[in-house]
Amino acid sequence: MPTTIVTVRDTCRLHCAAVADLLVLVVFVLIGRRTHGEDAGIGGFVRVLWPFVAGLVLGWAVTVLFREPLAWRRALPAWLVTVVGGMALRVLLEGRDFKLAFMIVALLFVGFGMLGWRAVVHRFGPSNSRNDPEIWAR
Question: What's the CA gap between 110 and 21, in Å, rounded?
Answer without folding.
Answer: 9
